[in-house]
Design a protein that fits this description.
heterodimer, A: alpha+beta, Arc Repressor Mutant, subunit A, 5 helices, 3 strands, B: mainly alpha, elongated
Chain lengths: 98, 183
C-alpha cells in the first residue's frame, strides 16, 4: 500500500482531484467557475492549487477564449487519476486498520 | 504525517460529496439542454395550434419528430464530449409513458381536443416529477408546478388555453432548463 500523497492531501486539492476524476477520461474537464463552486475556494487560492497539481503532472490545464471571455478548463491526467486512486486506497486502508 | 481513522473517514466523505455534486451537475446540464429544446418546441407547437387550428395535427407531428431527432443528437453529443451516457432505461421509461398515454388517449379514453391538450403535457410532466425523485428535486418541482398550472388553465383559461400552454408548459420548460444548466 502506498503512503500519503502530500500533493493531493491538502483539502482543496483533494476536492479538485475528486471532482476531476469523477469525469470519465474522455470528458472535456471542468471549467474554473465550476471548480470554484465545487471547492469553495477563492479565485487566487484555486489558481494556486491548480498550478500545484499541474506541476505535479496530475492535471492538464487548457486556456481558451469563448467570445471575449477567457475560459480555463482543467482535466485530470492519467498520472493524476492513478495517484488519486492510490490516495483513496490509502485512506480506506487507514479506516480498515491495515 | 499521521492520519486518524476519523480524519480519513471525513476525507472520504468529502470526496463522495464532491463526486455526487459533479455527477448531478452533469445530469442537470445535459437534461437542461434537452428541457430547453422541448420547451421551445412546445411553445412553438402551441402557438401554431392557436394560429392555425386546422394544421394542429401536422404541426405536432412535425414538432415531435424534430424534437426527437434533436434530442438524439444532443444525447449523442453528450456521449462523445462528456462521456455522459443516459441509460437505456431512460428511453424505455419514455417509451412506456408514451405507450400508456397512447392507450388511454387514443384507444380507451374519449378525450376531446382540450382534454388531449391537457393530458399529454401533464402525463410527461408527472414523468419528470417521478424522475426527479432520483435525479434532482428541480425536475420534481417542474413537473408538479407546471402540471398544477396546466390544470388551472384547463378550467379557467377559456379560449386562450393554447397560449396558456405555450407560456406555462413551454416557458416553464425553458426556465427550468436554464436553471438546470447553471446548477
Amino acid at each position: 500500500m502506498d503512503g500519503l500523497d502530500e500533493t493531493i492531501h491538502q483539502p482543496v486539492r483533494l476536492r479538485l482531484m475528486a471532482a476531476l476524476t469523477a469525469l470519465p477520461p474522455s470528458a472535456e474537464g471542468l471549467d474554473f467557475a465550476r471548480l470554484k463552486s465545487l471547492t469553495g475556494a477563492t479565485d487566487g487560492n484555486l489558481g494556486a492549487h491548480i498550478d500545484h497539481l499541474a506541476r505535479a503532472g496530475y492535471v492538464e490545464v487548457a486556456k481558451a477564449f469563448v467570445g471575449r471571455r477567457p475560459r480555463t478548463t482543467v482535466k485530470a491526467s492519467k498520472t493524476g487519476r492513478a495517484a488519486f486512486s492510490r490516495h483513496v486506497a490509502f485512506l480506506k486502508s487507514i479506516i480498515a486498520g491495515v | 504525517m499521521a492520519i486518524s481513522p476519523d480524519e480519513a473517514g471525513a476525507m472520504l466523505a468529502d470526496i463522495d460529496a464532491v463526486v455526487a455534486k459533479v455527477k448531478q451537475s452533469r445530469i442537470y446540464r445535459r437534461t437542461g439542454e434537452i428541457t430547453i429544446l422541448w420547451g421551445a418546441i412546445i411553445a412553438c407547437g402551441q402557438l401554431v395550434s392557436m394560429a392555425a387550428p386546422r394544421w394542429s395535427l401536422w404541426d405536432w407531428r412535425i414538432a415531435d419528430g424534430l424534437g426527437v431527432a434533436a434530442t438524439v443528437i444532443l444525447m449523442a453529443r453528450g456521449r462523445s464530449s462528456q462521456g455522459l451516457r443516459l441509460p437505456l432505461r431512460f428511453l424505455a421509461a419514455f417509451a412506456l409513458v408514451f405507450l400508456f398515454g397512447f392507450l388511454w388517449s387514443a384507444v380507451i379514453g374519449r378525450f376531446g381536443p382540450r382534454e388531449l391538450d391537457a393530458f399529454w403535457p401533464t402525463l410527461f410532466l408527472f414523468g419528470y416529477a417521478f424522475a426527479g425523485l432520483w435525479f434532482g428535486a428541480a425536475l420534481t418541482a417542474l413537473g408538479l408546478a407546471s402540471s398544477a398550472l396546466i390544470v388551472a388553465g384547463y378550467f379557467w383559461s377559456g379560449g386562450w388555453f393554447d397560449l396558456w400552454l405555450a407560456v406555462v408548459n413551454g416557458g416553464g420548460f425553458i426556465l427550468c432548463g436554464l436553471w438546470m444548466r447553471r446548477a
